[in-house]
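for the writeup, i need someone to sanity check this before i put it in the appendix. the sequnce is what the collaborator sent (i think, or maybe the updated version? ugh). structure was predicted straight from it, no edits. if anything looks off just tell me and ill rerun, i have time this weekend
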Amino acid sequence: MSRQATVERNTKETQIEMTIDLDSPGSVDIDTNLPFLSHMLEAFAVHGRFSLSVKAKGDIEVDPHHLIEDCGIVLGEVIYKALSGLKGIERAGSFTFPMDGSLAVCAIDICGRRNLTWNVKFGNFTVGGFDPNLFREFFKGFVDGLKATLHVHIIVQDNDHHVIEAVYKACGRALKQCVKQLDNDEYLSTKGMLDEN
């Protein structure tokens, strides 16, 4: 069964359309009006081995917050929609990614429980023209849309650009482990079910 999906989100603040194919790597087309965010979404898709199309615009003249947060929400929602529920997948995965002098650990459990543990600190300057602390809002939106638990921990760091890029690459690779299909169509849980609401 094809695990593809498209999600649109249109508000007064943002207009976003994303399409993902969890099983066919190679086609990545990212277009947001924040070039650094586009670069990070591309890194996520390439390292997760997903096909991903993103068309996103937002009121960045007000603040980049709306676009960054809403892109996280829609990315989580489109992955969840492509899964068509939580049966028959590995569910959890983790990856440690080195980016020069920075080392990021991401661990994900697509379990129906929304939680973000964010152990990342940035300096007092912008990255890509905006406050890098907004990436916490991206990943909070991501776990809300995906109905998942995500831990992000930075072990060592040399600069904020490398930290952010290592996080996106680690997250993509961890997610690839999570969505790997099992040999049967059952919940990977001692409860025999997961909360899909």
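Residues 101 and 158 are 5 Å apart (CA to CA). Helices lie at 35-48, 65-83, 134-146, 160-178.
thx in advance!!
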